[in-house]
Write a structure and sequence with these properties.
The chain is mainly alpha-helical. The protein has helices at about 5-25, 30-45, 55-60, 65-75, 80-85, 120-125, 135-145, 150-160; strands at about 90, 95-100.
């Protein structure tokens, strides 16, 4: 594996090849693609310790849905409106996201201070084990520049599917 600070550059270098590869993945049936991707996801996460990286928490913001806002606000013992005022803003898609990076709830050892109450997007990140993986290929492509695990999953998929032959 490589260092988290290297991931953005590695993802950018591989972006053109990955776009072509993802076009190939779009031709695989959703159920078959899930059967291929999910074991690779499991293998990679046997090897990667997210606490050693936390690049997702350091560089990107999850979307906060109303239930997430209420759950985190309750954890922090503040009103949802106070939580929004202090930590969130609406982005160009009209979604609530964090005001700044790194995440204000990330401590110095890469632990989440609101872990049990964290947003759904954080719970599911990097989404590579979700059903209908094919629906998030564009997001996965972006995440190859954020998450070393996603980058590695895509690299292994290219080998597994003999991409380039």
């Amino acid at each position: 594996m490589f260092k988290p600070e290297e991931i953005k550059e590695k993802g950018k270098v591989a972006e053109t090849i990955n776009k072509k590869f993802f076009d190939k993945l779009k031709k695989v049936s959703p159920d078959q693609l899930d059967k291929i991707v999910h074991p690779v996801h499991e293998d990679v996460f046997e090897e990667i310790d997210c606490l050693a990286c936390a690049n997702c928490c350091k560089t990107t913001s999850p979307i906060f849905y109303q239930a997430d806002i209420e759950r985190v606000a309750r954890k922090l013992r503040v009103k949802p409106s106070e939580f929004i005022d202090q930590y969130l803003h609406l982005d160009e898609d009209n979604d609530y996201v964090l005001n700044s990076s790194p995440c204000p709830f990330l401590d110095g050892e890469n632990y989440c201070l609101v872990y049990e109450s964290r947003p759904t997007a954080c719970r599911e990140y990097p989404h590579t084990n979700r059903k209908r993986f094919r629906q998030i290929l564009n997001l996965t492509l972006k995440n190859t520049q954020v998450c070393p695990a996603v980058y590695e999953i895509v690299e292994r998929l290219k080998v597994k599917l003999d991409f380039g032959k």
